[in-house]
Design goal:
Chain B: Keywords: Cell membrane, Membrane, Molybdenum, Transmembrane, Transmembrane helix, Transport. The complex is a heterotrimer of chains A (226), B (228) and C (221). Chain B has 228 residues and is mainly alpha-helical. Chain B is 76% helix and 0% strand. In chain B, helix 5 packs antiparallel against helix 8. Chain C has a 6-stranded mixed sheet with strand order 7-8-9-3-10-11, sandwiched between helices. Chain C has a 5-stranded antiparallel sheet with strand order 2-1-4-5-6, covered by helices on one side. Classes of the chains: A mainly alpha (226), B mainly alpha (228), C alpha/beta (221).
Chain lengths: 226, 228, 221
């Protein structure tokens, strides 16, 4: 049994989760505070990878990071190529995971009672302090749920990773791709081991997510009672 | 190479069939889960929503086991209808329905749970039986959530790649849907075909998100008019 | 004619109540959390008492001894909810028509929607939706909807608490008139003792599940 896909998948998922954690919170913070007329457009673009088929995401990333793509050329000038190398797995995983983090955190931000924030303002607390001392602690369950979801999505990506990372064993072959190619070549036993592993991770994620939805419902019910 | 419309037609067929299946199954199940308490409900809930977090290739693998030549349902299907599921459009429909189901289910369940229970009680005091309450009060008031779920399920069905590839394969003109066509066109260096499909899917996906956001805002305003 | 005695276990105390009422208005007063709404819901069949018996017009609708618990839709009870619970997706007319009189209703009382709407002075609101009318109007629609089923008993859960003083006095007068017109018992829940004294032929004060009779006068006696 070759364990390389496990390490490659974990590396991609962990780095992608860290990246989306910060970008997701920043984007959620920006969009929930933004009042301009492009709000719908910005939200649409940020959510897009959630609805786009993975192969479309892969194709768009190829255009962006390919030999002739704007970012591809830039990287080429410092002597690096992303396509079919391990950073490609990280990029694909980050892009597909991002909207989950962004949306969950944003809905958590928007559920916070605005009066609490306003009360803090009347007490002369700086916006920066309000964000770290009030907004983030109150939105914490949402942030945690978004992180878990993003991790699961990053771990599970198949189509987009396959397109820009390829399936080079020991380099870019992740677990979902390993399952596909093992099943394809009839090595069902090998595929089954990977399936079981992913299954366990997914069950844990599901349980955590259900806790979050229960919590959210309780919050809404509590708000309605007032 | 000439542009082929066939993947678009196949994708639409698959998505429509999947959405019909998902609608018929998710509404009664969501109603049951929202209204009844029973032993092991949490476990059922997790199993139902599992495809939401499972990687597509894992779903594809499991579908192959169940619907394959020697799988329990695969054998049954072959006895009844004398056709296989693997490598046919039926397989693509099943894959799409499985991945779309949890999205629809969750939207419908939340919508049903959000219907003010006092309205349902009021209907009961006016002599309505449980079925009448469900069809005249609960369902119409949950309609916004149901439509949102429908759109999400349709978009998800249309975009399915990994699981579909595993169970339905990549047979041009037969099971090659849009996402699969994009992958293989790109592999084969046919960037023209891939680009057109990518543009179509991107515009469609954007409209779905934009529409749902608008719809969400509108419905929130509507439902507030009632009660107090 | 309504006769009821029952117990109901609540999280913090046990509710114990006994009353009978031929005609007229029974006012249940007490602070919030005293169990007033629970009593109404037990009579209506939205909740089941822990033990006891409820008897409407010589028909047992609940009995813990005999194991009877008639479903709410067969109890012939009108219920006006605290927040009115009007169906937001239906017009006033559709709301009022939602519950039709059941078979076996009193034959000489032939009710039409127009009758009821006219009686409550809301004819002009027929085609409006609940979010297009005022609080007082919603109250009238809720009353009309409950009366349309020709109930044998009308339950009102704090029906006037959300209204301003003027609308409130007008509706108090109308409730009194309605009761005289309909000749069925009303049970009215309120936290306002003054309102109870003004409307109630009988008044029961509730505190921590124990009842105290403040006034007993049955019109039929």
């Amino acid at each position: 049994m070759d364990y390389a896909p496990l390490l490659i998948s974990l590396r991609a998922a962990i780095i992608a989760t860290i990246v989306t954690f910060f970008l997701g919170i920043a984007a959620a913070c920006f969009v929930s505070g933004y009042r301009g007329k492009f709000k719908g457009l910005i939200d649409g673009v940020l959510t897009l990878p959630l609805v786009l088929p993975p192969t479309v995401i892969g194709f768009l990333l190829l255009i962006l990071f390919g030999k002739n793509g704007p970012l591809g050329k830039l990287l080429m000038s410092i002597g690096k190529t992303v396509i079919f190398s391990w950073p490609a797995t990280v990029i694909a995983a980050s892009v597909v995971a991002f909207p989950l983090m962004y949306r969950t955190v944003r809905s958590a931000f928007e559920q916070i009672d605005q009066n609490i924030i306003n009360a803090a303002r009347t007490l002369g607390v700086s916006e920066w302090k309000i964000f770290w001392r009030i907004t983030i602690p109150l939105a914490w369950p949402g942030v945690a749920a978004g992180t878990v979801l993003a991790f699961a999505r990053a771990l599970g990506d198949f189509g987009a990773t396959l397109m820009i990372g390829g399936n080079i064993p020991g380099k870019t072959l992740t677990i979902p791709a390993a399952i596909f190619f093992a099943a394809e070549s009839g090595e069902m036993r090998k595929a089954l081991i990977w399936v079981m592993l992913i299954f366990i991770v997914s069950l844990i994620v599901m349980t955590l997510m259900n806790y979050w939805t229960d919590y959210q419902r309780k919050m809404i019910a509590a708000a309605g009672r007032k | 190479m000439e542009f082929s419309y066939v993947p678009i037609v196949l994708s639409l067929k698959v998505a429509f069939a999947a959405v019909i299946i998902v609608t018929c199954t998710s509404i009664p199940i969501a109603a049951l889960m929202a209204k009844r308490e029973f032993f092991g409900k949490d476990v059922v809930e997790s199993v139902i929503t599992l495809p939401l977090v499972l990687p597509p290739s894992v779903i594809g693998f499991m579908l192959l086991y169940v619907f394959g030549k020697n799988g329990p349902l695969g054998k049954l299907f072959e006895q009844w209808f004398h056709t296989r599921i693997v490598f046919t459009l039926a397989g693509a429909v099943i894959a799409a329905a499985v991945v779309a189901f949890p999205l629809m289910y969750q939207s419908v369940k939340v919508a049903i749970e959000n219907v003010d229970q006092n309205l349902e009680k009021a209907a009961r005091t006016l002599g309505a039986g449980e079925l009448k309450v469900f069809f005249t009060i609960t369902l119409p008031l949950a309609l916004n959530g149901i439509v949102a779920g429908l759109v999400l399920a349709f978009a998800r069905s249309l975009g399915e790649f990994g699981a579909t590839l595993m169970i339905a394969g990549n047979i041009p003109g037969k099971t090659q849907t849009m996402p699969i066509a994009i992958y293989f066109a790109n592999e084969a260096g046919d960037t023209g075909q891939a680009s057109v499909l990518v543009i179509i899917m991107t515009i469609f996906s954007f409209l779905v998100i934009y529409g749902l956001n608008r719809w969400g805002k509108g419905s929130r305003r509507d439902s507030r008019g009632g009660g107090a | 004619m309504l006769k009821a005695f029952f117990q109901k276990k609540l999280p913090t105390f046990e509710l114990e109540i006994e009353f009978s009422l031929n005609n007229g208005i029974l006012a249940l007063v007490g602070p919030s959390g005293a169990g007033k709404t629970t009593i109404l819901q037990c009579v209506a069949g939205l909740q089941a008492p822990s033990s006891g018996e409820i008897n409407i017009n010589d028909k047992i609708v609940f009995s813990s001894e005999q194991g009877v618990n008639i479903p709410i839709r067969k109890r012939r009870i009108g219920y006006v909810f605290q927040d009115y619970a009007l169906f937001p997706h239906m017009t006033v007319e559709k709301n009022v028509m939602y519950g039709k009189p059941q078979k076996g209703s009193i034959p000489n009382k032939v009710l039409t929607v127009s009758n009821v709407l006219e009686m409550l002075k809301i004819e002009h609101l027929r085609n409006r939706y609940p979010n297009q009318i005022s609080g007082g109007e919603k109250q009238r629609v809720a009353l009309a909807r409950a009366l349309m089923t020709e109930p044998e008993l009308l339950l009102l859960d704090e029906p006037l608490s959300a209204l301003d003083q003027d609308t409130r006095s007008t509706l108090q007068q109308e409730l009194l008139k309605l009761q005289v017109q309909w000749q069925i018992p009303f049970i009215l829940v309120t936290h306002d003792l003054q309102e109870a004294e003004m409307l109630g032929d009988q008044i029961i004060k509730l505190d921590h599940g124990k009842q105290e009779e403040l006034r007993k006068f049955d019109k039929a006696q």
